[in-house]
Design a protein that fits this description.
The complex is a heterodimer of chains A (about 450) and B (about 325). Chain A contains 20 helices and 12 strands. Chain A has about 450 residues and is α/β, with parallel strands linked by helices. Chain A is globular. The longest helix of chain B has about 30 residues. The chains are: A alpha/beta (about 450), B mainly alpha (about 325). Chains A and B meet through α4, α12, α18, α19 and α20 of A and α13 of B.
Chain lengths: ~450, ~325
Amino acid sequence: MNTAKPEDNAPSQQQVNRRSFIKTAGVAAAAAGGIEGILAARRAPAFAQGTKLHIVRWNDFIPEADVWLKKEGMPAASKALGAEVTIETIGFNDLQPRITAAVQSGAGADIFMLYYNWPHLYANALVDVSDVAGEVAKAQGGFYGVFEPSMKVGGKWLGMPHSIVGNTIAYRKSWFKEVGFGAFPKTWDELRKAAAELKKKGRPYGQTLGHTFGDAPTWAYPLMWSFGGAETDKSGKKVAVNSKGTLDSVKYMTALWKEGCDEGGLAWDDSNNNRAFHAGEISASLNGASIYIVAKRQKDKLKDEKGEPLYLDIDHGSFPLAGGVGQFPLYFSNGHGIMKYSKNQKPAKDLLRWIHTKENFEKWFQACEGYSVAPTTDWEKHAMWGKIDKPLQMFRTAARNTRIFGYAGPATAKSTEVYSKYIIVDMYANAASGKMKPEGAVKWAETELKKIYEA
Amino acid sequence: MKRPIAGGAGGAAGVEVALPHPRAAGPRPLARLLESERLLATLLLTPAVLLLGVFIAYPFVMGVWLSLSSTSVGNPGQFVGLKNFAKAWDDSIFQIAFGNTFFYTFWATIFKLALGMWVALLLNRVFRGMRLVRAAMLLPFIIPTVLSTFAWRWMFDPSFSVLNWTLYKTGLIATKLPFLSDGTWALWCAIVINTWRGMPFFAITLLAGLQTINPDLHEAASLDGANGWKRFWHVTWPLLKPVTIVVVVFSIIQTFADFQLIYVLTGGGPANSTHLLATYAYQLGVATGLLGEGAAVSLFMFPVLFAVVCVQLWYVRRMEGA
């Protein structure tokens, strides 16, 4: 005899009575609206019919990651959430104009991709996503240290950490071997020696010191930190850049530039080094994994001077190098922010939850092949790291020890102003180009920083 | 109905004309309203005033307000008086951008005028394929600036410059020329591109001006023994001056506020050496979110452009009065 009451039966697709609906919604609510709730209920949350979500991200350096998001990821999310999710990818440099226009007009995408410490910049326009961040961090081993100063403002997570693009130095194994380095140099001094030898052979080290958002600051800040330099003291209110550490780093850069670098790097953007490396113009360059991944995916086209696929001669060296006071990288950390003007804040949060569900995130994560690493530490244990090529495996732990600009103070909007004005990058560029002496370049940076931090 | 003609002495003249029969109730209210010149003028002007108000006056007033406030993205800010202007004036990057803007505008305008005049004089002659050449002349002006600047950027590329390659292969240089990696070179490269892009506008407009000059004047000057230079200086130039002034003024306004070219070519680098006021204002307002400070930097252009427009208006009125 069936003693079960009618309401105990699982609701079918066709038949949803009021009680089962409340129960379903209750499950979802019990899970704090979490994705577990959505999955447990086996149906999309009860969003208003016709709910639309618009998410804007950058054009990924790994196109396959975007292909997955557009063709599989977001259609699946639409189905799971019962909301029509539209993903738009645009150039990195177009993100800030879009966000600014959206915030000022109070209309636009529901979710924007946010970089570095942008939540500090747009704090008044972002929804608190601490609930989502808390769930993901708890379930996946906690966020890397860089995210708290970058995406948490006033104790609230205003950006949901998404991933980190790690940076290492892609280099030509055979060319370094020719000048006596069987492995990539371990210290700054060794790098200088190797680069000088390579430049004599017409194979300089390639580094941008131009006005470009990625490779220039991710080189300049860690170089300063490695030598003991810092923008400010711990309070963030007193400028501390004019120190022995900073000056030593500028002197080092000036020497490296003349002796070992491709001096055209002063005008490079973030893609010049990839092209120069693939064309055999440079021997090494600070890079995410894109130089290697593209070389491998285009192995029939990109060959070395012996006619062999270029990627076989590429490996990655650690950055920053040793020999200073420590090794502290600045990686390209990013997340997503929900805009306060959005009328779909609840579905937007559920989309973030959906994205970070292990089974969904895993697919995107694997499409990146190590170019982007996850925001939480558990993903270091993922099986993918054992399967990908050896040169890519070092990205597994790349996100540890990452700092954000503003150091030794907090990463406030003022530190973003310094970054956006390229003051630290230009400190090195001014000295490397010979426009200023190292002492003058540091003094110039100090004057500019004081106008921002001490005003 | 017949009435005596106006001015006539009643029926004495005996001339009568037919006049339209007025409606018993007078004209309709709408027709009566439209007969009011003042109202009709207001109605006809309203769309233009609205367009100017929404797209010109409102953004301008908004810009002025922003420049006087501490507004940042998502934060309405407060009135801060001239603080943003003072901060900008004290900012070394602003000082570079300010100087660059004048330098860039001055040299680009000089080159555009000189080359534009030369090309216009050449195109004013009759030769085979004249129309094709005149049409082709406009190509740099027609191509979107972003696209053409990308093409130039490739030509000046630090690693793959076709110019460097050609000069190297022909033995004219031993090392690469630092087109974009040296601040001074980069600014001159920007001036070259601006000249290339803007010169056709000068050439075509001056050509239009040249074609309005009566050939008899040149013929008479020739008969009087004037050589080519004297004919240009005493006949062509005085008659072309009004057109030239207008073209130069338009060019100064456009060049002074140039943004796209520098943004695409160098992003203001290396080490801020190619920043113009517009690109630096964008960097402050958009990349840093400091809308108030960005607006203040861009408003530094206003007095200069306002003076240029005043000169133009004064000149146009003087010409109309002459």
